[in-house]
Specification:
This protein is of the alpha+beta class. It folds into 5 domains: about 5-65 and about 125-210; about 70-120, no CATH class; about 220-350, no CATH class; about 355-550, Hypothetical protein af1432 (Orthogonal Bundle); about 575-710, Isoleucyl-tRNA Synthetase, Domain 1 (Orthogonal Bundle). It is built from 26 helices and 20 strands. The strands form 6 sheets. Strands 1, 2, 3, 9, 10, 11 and 12 form a 7-stranded mixed β-sheet that branches. It has a 4-stranded antiparallel β-sheet with strand order 15-17-18-16, sandwiched between helices. Strand 7 (about 150) and strand 8 (about 155) form a beta hairpin. Helix 10 runs antiparallel to helix 17. The chain is flat, with a radius of gyration of 35 Å. About 35% of the residues are buried.
Length: about 725
């Protein structure tokens, strides 16, 4: 066993899957930070968890704290001495506590005045002593989303604790937590191998658990499960339907990563693919299996889209199922759940979406913002406005139709049962009702993108309706003053704003977001507490924060984003083009030189009023040269910017770098002659306006010394 090893295992009743990873992260972080603060930092940190145990292994810990000296502050000098200069009881007591004589105490000056102090040598504690102090404290303070109290008032904690292994170099670290004493005893699976056994360190702990089929490392359980699922699905002629979140859940609800595969009646395959997947995932935590073509290749989508097989895969927290009871029990439950889903589907199909539209009047969007029926009419108006403003008139009728039916599936039995199918079921039912492809796809895709990895909705109709839906929600909630703060965002407005940004950027939609938000505010009538302008003042920076986030994820530097945002961000595709242009030219020597000149121009023009430029009053060769160069490129720069060719705009503008450098080297801008000074300021003002056409270059970060070192000037 390596020296300096801590093995900590806390066994409890089954902890909910969603709580495990945050808990072990808290535990490991707190222990590491506390040990580092006491110069006891480990060389290696390993964590693990199962539903019934949290595991922390530290290696390379020092065997004791270093000895140290500490200055102890005592009483103020004014109370330490009597009038005759003899020590008071306060001084005598302080000196005695420090192991000193009264005349050995020193004086120090602090912000509060003159005090007595003593320097003490403190022996570092053995690491075992430190751990015995820290571990129970940190374990008690783990923050759980929900906790409980049990027995004689033990807790609060996520679940009752059954046992604790705490070993430092094989020796028990003694402490007590909620009535449980730490020791060297653990056990296997609570049902299959409950007998306790002792361990002396991490290696033996892993070895003995492995003999019982238990794997404490979630990453290893994930690997085992994933490989087993792929192999089992391949034997059936298919593959598991990809679902990383479900796999994470299965990993967290087992400690023996055993695979269970079952089947169901093929008649259930008449249900839509999405319904089958949702039923198996939500009710049984099971993966669906989709067919693949011969030799593992995907079947042609037009002829036979990736269809589901009448099979499912899940974890069973045991290595085998000798009596087949686990499989039979799961199949019985799956059959019942799928029968329910089929019933809901057929019940929903008795009425078309058009017929269900009236039900939205009885469904509240927000108590102050009215019903979903009112929202549907607002969305139809917004979608039509968007189509007209973008020149997409051909999609206007389809977008209005999709908008009116966008939320109708909220009234269906299927969505009440499977909330994850919101939008999806509406799209399926719209398709079954014979609505145009662009309409049902818009309904189906309305919640895309839900994450940074998701695609945006298909087609123009889908993009328009999804954008209108999010803007309506943002304006409505912001109009009530319910702006997200910190981590609190009950209406999912950050996700909605990110969706707006992604759709506009990736969809190439040059929509004026201010005008769209103002229109959305007017459509609410008198329902809002804030004026349109007040809403925009708070909504605009909120959206821009999402812009920064999305563009940052795309690999653009913060100064590139800020420089582009500084000259406007309403037209998001144009904004992205300007950021891309900055990214493309930022390493060019002339451009970097131009940035430095732009910063110098801004400093000179600070607090200056506007001045006219008179070519006839240019007297120095360098300023005449600058004027000619500026005049030659001004129109080209303006035209390139107006056409959206921002890289050409920036590269052409960078051609001013050399003449600007000469101008500043040879011309005194703030000349004593007032006429010369004003004319030169006017020239710089004209240049400043053109240089900042695509981006505010002064936001770019360029170190002057680094620039000189790189380019030798």
């Amino acid at each position: 066993m390596a020296k300096g090893e801590l093995l900590l295992e806390v066994r409890a009743e089954e902890i909910p899957a969603r709580m495990l990873e945050p808990a072990i992260t808290q535990l490991a972080t707190r222990v590491f930070e506390e040990l580092m603060a006491r110069d006891l930092g480990p060389k290696e940190v390993e964590t693990g968890f199962t539903p019934r145990r949290l595991l922390l292994i530290l290696k390379g810990l020092p065997l004791k704290e270093p000895d140290r000296e500490e200055q102890v502050v005592g009483p103020p000098v004014r109370v330490a001495f009597k009038e005759d200069g003899s020590p008071t009881p306060a001084l005598v007591g302080f000196a005695r506590r420090c192991g000193l004589e009264a005349d050995q105490v020193e004086r120090i000056t602090t912000d509060k005045g003159e005090y007595l102090a003593a320097t003490q040598s403190i022996r570092g504690l053995e690491t075992e002593e430190v751990l015995a102090e820290l571990l129970p404290k940190i374990l008690r303070e783990i923050s759980w989303p929900k906790s409980m109290v049990w027995g004689d008032g033990y807790g609060p904690w996520a679940r009752p604790i059954h046992g604790i292994v705490a070993l430092f170099d094989g020796k028990v670290v003694p402490f007590e937590l909620f009535g449980v004493e730490s020791g060297a005893q653990t056990c296997g699976h609570s049902i299959l191998s409950p007998r306790s056994f002792s361990v002396r360190g991490a290696a033996e702990y892993r070895r003995k658990l492995a003999k019982l089929g238990i794997e404490a490392q979630p990453d290893e359980r994930r690997r085992i499960l994933s490989q087993a699922m792929i192999a089992a699905a391949a034997e059936l002629g298919g593959r598991p339907v990809e679902d990383p979140q479900l796999l994470d859940k299965l990993v967290a609800i087992c400690e023996i990563p055993g695979l269970m595969h079952g089947s169901f009646d093929a008649e259930f395959l008449e249900l839509p693919r999405e319904v089958l997947i949702a039923s198996l995932r939500d009710h049984q935590s099971a993966f669906s299996v989709e067919a693949v073509g011969e030799e593992g290749s995907e079947e042609a989508a037009d002829e036979n889209p990736s269809r589901l097989l009448p099979a499912f895969l899940t974890v069973m927290d045991r290595a085998d199922d000798p009596s087949d009871r686990v499989r039979v029990g799961n199949e019985w439950v799956v059959a019942a759940r799928l029968a329910d889903a089929r019933f809901f589907f057929h019940e929903d199909r008795k009425r078309s979406l058009e017929e269900r539209g009236g039900d939205l009047a009885h469904l509240t969007f927000h108590e102050k913002l009215g019903s979903y029926a009112e929202k549907a009419e607002r969305l139809a108006d917004l979608a039509a406005l968007l189509c007209r403003s973008l020149g997409w008139e051909e999609q206007e009728a389809a977008a209005a139709q999709a908008a009116r039916h966008l939320k109708v599936d909220l009234t269906t039995e299927m969505v009440k049962e499977f909330t994850s199918l919101q939008g999806v079921m509406g799209g399926i039912y719209a398709r079954e009702d014979g609505m145009a492809e662009e309409v049902w796809q818009a309904i189906y895709d309305q919640y895309l993108p839900a994450s940074t990895e998701d695609p945006i909705p298909r087609g123009r109709t889908g993009m328009v309706t999804a954008l209108a839906d999010r803007i309506d929600t943002l304006v409505g909630i912001f109009g009530l003053g319910l702006i997200p703060t910190g981590s609190r965002d009950p209406f999912g407005l950050r996700r909605a704003a990110q969706g707006v940004v992604r759709i506009a950027l990736d969809g190439g939609m040059p929509v004026d977001l201010d005008l769209l938000a103002a229109k959305a505010a007017r459509l609410y009538g008198d329902k809002l507490d804030k004026s349109g302008e007040e809403i925009l003042e708070s909504l605009r920076p909120f959206l821009f924060d999402r812009v920064r986030h999305v563009l940052g994820l795309s690999g653009f530097a913060y100064d590139e984003i800020e420089a582009a945002l500084a000259v406007g961000g309403n037209n998001l595709p144009d904004l992205k083009a300007r950021v891309e242009a900055l990214h493309a030219v930022r390493e060019q020597k002339e451009f970097l030189s131009l940035v430095l000149s732009a910063k110098r121009i801004l400093n000179i023009l600070k607090d200056s009023q506007e001045y006219d430029l008179d070519e006839g009053r240019l007297v120095e060769p360098a300023e005449k040269e600058l004027f000619v160069a500026f005049s030659d490129l001004k129109n080209e720069v303006e035209e390139a910017a107006a056409a959206g060719d921002h890289e050409a705009c920036l590269r052409r503008t960078a051609e001013l770098a050399g003449v600007l450098d000469r101008f500043f080297a040879e011309v005194l801008v703030m000349d004593e002659d007032e006429e010369l000074r004003r004319n030169r300021l006017g020239l710089l003002q004209a240049i400043h306006r053109v240089v900042g056409r695509s981006a505010r270059l002064t936001e770019m970060v360029v170190d002057k010394a680094e620039h000189r070192a790189r380019f030798g000037d």
